[in-house]
């Protein structure tokens, strides 16, 4: 069993428990090895000595255990969530998706339009601000059950369980509008930002990579058709699009 001390009260309780155990152990040991008369004379002093010796040691150990717990929490946070945007990491996204059951799902890929131009014109701090506020727009307008992840750069992936492709399209259009209507603020200056979205449906979590490729193709079409829009994957239409053909549109 792993001992977890996450608060100061946990440390205090741990310290008190150790002290009580040490005092009881001291009394029991004296009872076993000392004559009754001598035990009665030394019981209180022995208990006080046991308390004085064990309390600082137990508090020190409890404090170190709490620090270890806090460090583990920070490590889990760093592994599971992107520090800049608060979205899930790619690794945690796949871990969460693997736990889902079969059923209707929609996958949305969102990509900030002209992000390189934002960095080049306003600097990387402005780019980080754009990413942070863009992620907030996605997180604030998705359900708690939706999995919003940053896959790298300015690209985000959203998995909506229990939502078919058509409903995913409606959700993506709402997100696109939300981003369009909420300019980011950099050093007190409002700056309009738009994003393009690709949507694909799936029913089996094991097919997530296939759905990501399909949504990518839909995203490339959205970029090629002028950006600031949403496209639902269509096998007949989107097979002509590829990352190479869309690079010029990004």
List key phrases describing it:
disordered C terminus; two-stranded antiparallel ribbon; 7 strands; 250 residues; alpha+beta; elongated; 5-stranded mixed β-sheet
Describe the protein.
- This protein has 250 residues and is α+β, with helices and mostly antiparallel strands.
- Helices cover 59% and strands 15% of the residues.
- It has nine helices and seven strands, in the order αααβααββαβββαβαα.
- It has helices spanning 8-33, 36-80, 90-98, 115-122, 124-140, 165-181, 208-224, 235-238, 243-246; strands at residues 105-112, 147-152, 155-161, 184-186, 189-191, 195-202, 230-232.
- A hairpin with a 2-residue loop joins strand 4 and strand 5 (189-191).
- The protein is elongated.
């Amino acid at each position: 069993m792993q001992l977890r001390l996450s608060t100061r009260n946990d440390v205090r309780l741990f310290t008190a428990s150790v002290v009580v155990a040490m005092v009881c152990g001291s009394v029991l040991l004296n009872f076993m090895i000392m004559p009754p008369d001598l035990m009665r004379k030394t019981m209180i002093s022995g208990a006080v000595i046991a308390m004085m010796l064990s309390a600082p040691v137990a508090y020190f150990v409890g404090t170190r255990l709490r620090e270890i717990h806090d460090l583990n929490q920070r490590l889990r946070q760093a592994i599971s969530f992107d520090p800049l945007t608060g979205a899930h990491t790619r690794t945690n996204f796949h871990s969460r998706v693997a736990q889902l059951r079969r059923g209707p799902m929609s996958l949305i890929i969102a990509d900030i339009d002209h992000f390189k131009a934002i960095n080049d014109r306003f600097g990387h701090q402005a780019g980080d601000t754009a990413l942070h506020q863009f992620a907030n727009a996605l997180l604030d307008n998705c359900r708690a059950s939706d999995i919003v992840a940053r896959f790298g750069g300015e690209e985000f992936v959203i998995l909506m369980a229990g939502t078919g492709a058509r409903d995913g399209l409606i959700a993506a259009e709402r997100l696109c509008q939300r981003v369009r209507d909420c300019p980011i603020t950099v050093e007190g200056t409002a700056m309009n930002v738009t994003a393009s979205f690709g949507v694909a449906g799936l029913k089996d979590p094991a097919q997530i990579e296939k759905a990501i490729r399909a949504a990518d193709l839909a995203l490339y079409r959205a970029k090629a058709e002028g950006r600031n829009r949403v496209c639902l994957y269509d096998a007949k239409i989107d097979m002509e699009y590829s990352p190479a053909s869309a690079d010029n549109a990004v």
